Amino acid sequence: MTPAPDLTFSGTATINGVTLFAPLTLTIGAGAWTCLLGGSGVGKTTVLRLIAGLETGAEFSGQIAASDGQSVPDRVAYMAQDDLLLPWATVVQNVSLGARLRGEVVDLDRRDRLIERMRLQDHMAKKPAELSGGQRQRVALARTLMEDRPIVLLDEPFSALDARTRADMQDLAAEALQGRTVLLVTHDPAEAARLGQSITVMTQLGLTPCDPPKAPAPRHVDDLETLETQGALLKLLREAA
Amino acid sequence: MKFLSALAATIFALAVWQAIVSMTGLPKFILPGPALVAETWWQSRWLIAEHTWITAIEVLIGLCCGTLLGVVTALQLANSRAARVLVQPMLIFTQALPVFALAPLLTLWLGYGLWSKVAMAVLIIYFPITSSFFDGLMRTPPGFLDLARTMQASPRAVLWHIRIPAALPALASGMRLAAVYAPIGAVIGEWVGSSQGLGYLMLLANGRAKTDLMFAAMLTLGVFSILLHMFVRRATARMAGEAR
């Protein structure tokens, strides 16, 4: 794994000639969590997918660059709201999917350590349908970690979970992805306030950077400043709408 | 429960059949009653078994060849745009032709023996297999493909590890359909020209006004088709994701 780089995203996107987002510049700090917060349809997922080098259906003109000058899409790990676990594969097979797809030898020790770290050791031979929503997202996180990429792109990975499981997953992910350049796209102000080391609100009007709470992430769910930030973020979202 | 409902349905059908025979008083060469058909079936059991065996061989070979051919075609179609442009319209066109019309031609080309019937069975199941598997291959959940993309997977690896497994349930439903169609194909082939098989036996019995034997052969074909469908259903349960 190369050291985690800074990322700079700048440009504009249109869909069939209609502007999805006007020219904007987003800087994603090296080795830190950047939260991109926004409502539905503002194009935040498009930003993430463009960075990942995925199909978006939008016309993008601009630049996506890493501070070390190396290619970005080759060094990302991707996690979506849907856990994207293959339903026919077991937990261990899902965790090692990347290596199997690239025809590489699976590092079994690493795989088993990650599975243990995600507290899935009792579920190794199970299929996704036998797991709870939280367990499934933990498998997805183990798969993401297995990729061992310096850049991690998270597209609302916790939004389908219940409140308690979501908070647990946020803690686990924050700890597990430390030191990597993380972009978390979310519509949840509470999530952004808990996890963001840098928080940017995306609305129709463009990007608004916000000060994250001072406490180190992941912040306590009842930390006063975090709750204040959450309120301020929600206010920003509502003003723009 | 399932068995009981099947039993009840059978008894009900037999009762209706017998009632029609008793009430209308139709002569037995027009409509034989269930008792007579059962008796004929028992008396001719070895004759029927022999012809059933022939038809079964035709159907099973046809099913295997047709499935293999359909799977290979679907993979080619899914893999190559050129194949889609060139072959897909042709595939639909051949499906628009009545298979019945092709049967004499196949007999002319492949003779009266086994292979013209196998070819009929293959022809009739080729399309459902190809089209269901192809649809499955083209409808891989896009999220899986995104994930594979970020993992730098080659198209071949994506096909093998993601697209094919994701399409297996669709292939399973195609195969279940094929299990119902294949016997129809083989019997049509036998009608057009043969000296063996249940289709031949039906035609022969009909021609000699042995309607009871005709019924016995027909019901045997029906039971065979149901058993075949049940077998294929069970064999494809894993593929369809019904069993773990």
UniProtKB/TrEMBL annotation, chain A:
Q: What is the lineage of its organism?
A: Bacteria, Pseudomonadati, Pseudomonadota, Alphaproteobacteria, Rhodobacterales
Q: Provide this UniProt record's keywords sorted from A to Z.
A: ATP-binding, Nucleotide-binding, Transport
Tell me its family. Answer: Belongs to the ABC transporter superfamily.
Name of the protein this chain belongs to: Putative hydroxymethylpyrimidine transport system ATP-binding protein
Extract the signal peptide range: none
Keyword Magnesium listed? The answer is no
ABC transporter domain location: 2-229
Q: Which GO terms describe its molecular function?
A: ATP binding; ATP hydrolysis activity
Q: Which residues form a coiled coil?
A: none
Question: Is ATP-binding one of the keywords?
Answer: yes
TrEMBL record, chain B:
Which membrane topology term applies here? Multi-pass membrane protein
Q: What is the lineage of its organism?
A: Bacteria, Pseudomonadati, Pseudomonadota, Alphaproteobacteria, Rhodobacterales
Keyword flag Membrane: yes
Q: For this UniProt entry, which segments traverse the membrane?
A: 53-78, 90-112, 118-137, 158-184, 213-232
Q: Which InterPro entries match?
A: MetI-like, MetI-like_sf
One of this protein's Pfam families, by short name? BPD_transp_1
Q: Which keywords, in A-to-Z order, does the entry hold?
A: Cell membrane, Membrane, Transmembrane, Transmembrane helix, Transport
The entry's cellular-component GO terms read:
plasma membrane
Q: What is its main location?
A: membrane
| Location of this chain's protein in the cell | Cell membrane
Q: Which family does it belong to?
A: Belongs to the binding-protein-dependent transport system permease family.
Q: In this protein, which residues make up the domain named ABC transmembrane type-1?
A: 48-232
Q: Which PROSITE patterns match?
A: ABC_TM1
Q: Which GO terms describe its biological process?
A: transmembrane transport
User: Would you tell me the protein name for this molecule?
Assistant: Putative hydroxymethylpyrimidine transport system permease protein
The record ties this protein, via CDD domains, to: TM_PBP2 (cd06261)
- Keyword check for Secreted: no
